[in-house]
């Protein structure tokens, strides 16, 4: 399959052809990333959905063991799609794709997204998922630089990675509603 055939197949009126096409997208590797990303914002929801499925299929195929240069090429093709020139939903999906196949080389990009109001939680969780010292260091630095409303989120990611974080509450342990206990031992509000 060629990139032109991929684009035509994803835009096909025939749902079976669309499915067959996005399932074959991994064979094109990094060459399919740009065209699929463009089609993922198509006004036709079925075309956009098929393109996004194809993009995920390319990513997961690149993440298989011993994929070598394919993984690196797909990562390089995905990185520009995190830029603010692209729609937020596409950027968010790409951050999650990177969380599946990225390595230490992608950590600085993801760390820079911790200051992006729209993507900061996605970037934080991507860093949480990437093994190694580089992503852990990025989370530590992110905690130091995070605004107060975001510090508990970054602290949570550090705790998930086995770090001890003092002086920042674990939001899972902070009551959502004010409660009280009456003298007779019954809970009240």
Could you characterize what this model shows?
The chain has a two-stranded antiparallel ribbon. The longest helix has 18 residues, at 45-62. The protein is mainly α and 189 residues long. The mean pLDDT is 91. The protein has ten helices and two strands, in the order H-H-H-H-H-H-H-H-H-H-E-E. The chain is elongated.
**Largest β sheet strand count, sense and barrel closure:** 2 strands, antiparallel
Poorly predicted segments: none
Question: How far is the N terminus from the C terminus?
Answer: 64 Å
Shape: elongated
Spatial strand arrangement across the major sheet? 1-2
Helical percent range?
A: 55-70%
- Structural class, by secondary structure, is mainly alpha
Rg of Cα set: 21 Å
Global mean pLDDT? 91
SSE topology string: HHHHHHHHHHEE
Strand content: under 5%
- The helix count comes to 10
The total strand number stands at 2
